[in-house]
Design a protein that fits this description.
By secondary structure, this protein is an alpha/beta fold. The chain folds into two domains: 125 residues, D-Maltodextrin-Binding Protein, domain 2 (3-Layer(aba) Sandwich), CATH 3.40.190.10; 212 residues, D-Maltodextrin-Binding Protein, domain 2 (3-Layer(aba) Sandwich). Helices cover 41% and strands 14% of the residues. The chain contains 15 helices and ten strands. Strands 2-1-3-10-4 form a five-stranded mixed β-sheet, with helices on both faces. A five-stranded mixed β-sheet has the order 7-6-8-5-9. Helix 2 crosses helix 11, helix 9 runs antiparallel to helix 13 and helix 11 packs across helix 12. The longest helix has 20 residues. This is Thiamine pyrimidine synthase.
Length: 376
């Protein structure tokens, strides 16, 4: 029997996969378009409170993708400018690298996960990084393989070769996944490669499975000629690891010196998120139009955005509590699991996340379903 996520993906991908097939050899690589829509600032990180046109430098978790639509929408529609902020962004090179660069002060705000931030904080307790919002209510952490591999359950991973970049979040969390599915963490071997080669290794049979974000891996495999019927996904959140996905992160020093800047940034960002959910097709077209390389593949980005909206952005929790926040009991559990998995010093949720900068709940609610247009 398929897991819930596998069933959802099958439904999501039926149309998207056929579109990708029709695109055929005219398809371009899906993750491109790393040019910011405004010139990136080159000065040191901002340290004063909000003022007209204050420059705020943001680092993305990876190449610009449709997942960044709320940010890009808020920039292009002037929502940040309305708040007195001049926001620019640069591509990232994975969540771990994004955390490292935020830690150096090169950027003011970063989009990444709290699990890498916790590891950073463990090594830099006097220079902590904090999450001020979660824009992904569910993490896209997963192990992905092909059904032809014979891997039907997590237990079938034993003795197999898995592939992922060294800093891949799901790879670093694999010991926790292994514990939940009752296999030994060292019962698999790992092959390390550059992020851009992960799916290629799987497609070429160099590894039996890969760890990664399903929003990254699945579109690439579909573009590589596979269909949903070929793919098997073990989503971590279906095996006891109900983690939050990426958040909006800042250094604690920046947070303490710039409370109004952070409040203004979040207000504009979640206004953008609401608009993306209301009209995802318009948001997708806007993201593609800002791709200066002109290599972004709309079909792949459409699939990516559809997965994100249906699985990560709009969840029952978000429908009830609004964008950006966290259920503290759920967050505490995932933090405790991360402390164990990463062998970190114990921390509490309040050491990693604060919701005090979020807009009022009514300003960040999910648009009513009647107001949401389909993604086409």
């Amino acid at each position: 029997m398929l897991h819930t996520f596998q069933k959802q993906l099958h439904r999501i991908l039926l149309i998207a996969a056929s579109t990708a097939v029709l695109a055929g050899c005219n398809s371009a690589p899906p993750t491109t378009g790393d040019k910011p829509s405004t010139t990136a600032a080159t000065t040191t990180a901002a340290s004063t409170d909000k003022k007209e046109g204050q420059k705020i430098r943001v680092q993305l978790p990876f190449l610009k993708q449709s997942l960044d639509a709320p940010l890009i929408w808020a920039i292009e529609k002037g929502y940040f400018a309305e708040q007195g902020l001049d926001v620019s962004y640069e591509r990232g090179f994975g969540n771990s690298d994004t955390i490292s660069k935020l830690g150096t002060g090169k950027y003011d705000i970063a989009f990444s996960d709290i699990y890498n931030a916790m590891e950073f904080n463990d090594k830099n307790p006097s220079d902590k990084i904090m999450a001020v919002a979660f824009y992904q209510s569910k993490a896209p952490f997963s192990i992905i393989t092909f059904k032809q591999s014979g891997i039907k359950t997590p237990a079938d991973l034993v003795g197999k070769k898995l592939g992922a970049p060294a800093g891949d979040g799901p790879r670093k969390l694999f010991p926790l996944f292994a514990k939940e599915v009752k296999i030994a963490p060292d019962s698999v071997t790992w092959d390390t490669m550059e992020p851009k080669l992960r799916e290629t290794f799987l497609l070429q049979g160099k590894v039996d499975a890969v760890s990664g974000f399903y929003t990254s891996v699945i579109p690439s495999l579909i573009e590589g000629g596979k269909t949903m019927d070929d793919i098997k996904i073990f989503a971590y959140d279906e095996f006891g690891l109900d983690f939050y996905g990426n958040g909006i992160l800042v250094k604690q020093d920046f947070m303490n010196k710039n409370p109004e800047v952070i409040k203004s940034f979040l207000k504009a960002y979640f206004k953008g998120m609401q608009e993306v959910v209301k009209d995802p097709s318009a948001a997708l077209d806007l993201v593609v139009s800002t791709d200066q390389s002109k290599l972004m593949d709309r079909d792949a980005e459409k699939l990516r955005l559809k997965l994100a909206i249906e699985r990560m952005y709009v969840t029952p929790e978000v429908e009830s509590a609004g964008f950006g926040g966290a259920d503290m009991k759920r967050l505490e559990k995932s933090i405790t699991q991360t402390v164990t998995g990463f062998n970190l010093k114990p921390v509490k949720a309040a050491d990693v996340f604060t919701d005090k900068f979020l807009p009022a709940k009514e300003q960040r609610m999910v648009p009513p379903s009647a107001d949401r247009k389909p993604l086409i």
